[in-house]
Amino acid sequence: MIHIDFRDPRPIYEQVYDALRNLIVSGVLAPGEKLPSVRELASTLAINPNTIQRAYRELESDGYLCSVPGKGSFASGSDAARSAHRRELLDRFCALAEELRAAGVSDENMIRAIRGGERT
Amino acid sequence: MIHIDFRDPRPIYEQVYDALRNLIVSGVLAPGEKLPSVRELASTLAINPNTIQRAYRELESDGYLCSVPGKGSFASGSDAARSAHRRELLDRFCALAEELRAAGVSDENMIRAIRGGERT
DNA sequence: AAAACTGTATTAAACGAATTAATACAGTTG
DNA sequence: CAACTGTATTAATTCGTTTAATACAGTTTT
Lengths: 120, 120
Prior knowledge:
Two copies of one chain form a homodimer.
Chain A: H1 12-25, H2 38-45, H3 49-61, E1 65-68, E2 72-75, H4 78-102, H5 107-116
Helix pairs in contact in A: 1-3, 2-3
The structure holds a DNA duplex.
């Protein structure tokens, strides 16, 4: 379900965050669907529960899931999740476009890069 | 000339790297112009020479400057530097566009984001 | 009601990357 | 020769991440 790369310099909690967010926004985890418990996922991935807890905490504070003490953690509505994710990506996208413009890249060349995936 | 933010979670050597690269690709540091020595810049910024050394080493390995033992470090030709920088930014840009496409954002909406800087 | 689950919080230890510190060596310049 | 330059190395420190070991309160199950 989730794969952790221990050679990846990025923190584990961040890898877990990204993986779960992707499952949520893609709808693999349906809105309202229950996620594995903190301890269960920690056991499955062979990492510490505190690390999972941190990923869950940040996923909740970013609106991707909802945790209820005693009950569990549940995927939030995929509409809201998708919006949050798009917003996040678009912000980074605009910032990068700004940098590219400062580097002398024209809008036309950016558009070409988007359309073609080319790296000329 | 350069400002370091100690509250920034990013490593200092990376902040120095970015700042110097920007000065080089923007032409503020002309091609061939001598940069402050490792020890001098370290003293100016009140950080350790080893940290500056690391920034310089990576700037050289990425083609933004050229270090000569005994003489100093010199900004590389801004043409090559600009190209390297644009390549780097464009790679990240294309990767982000890919993610946005996967998130269901159309090319048209990406283009709109570039043109307007809008965040709708 | 008891047992087994859930999220959450806390404290301490271990680990690794970043940073500092203190040198040292070789080449260049004045 | 003296003062600069880049470069290399080793050890100590600092800090964020991760682990570990608990504990508490609420929910579900038996």
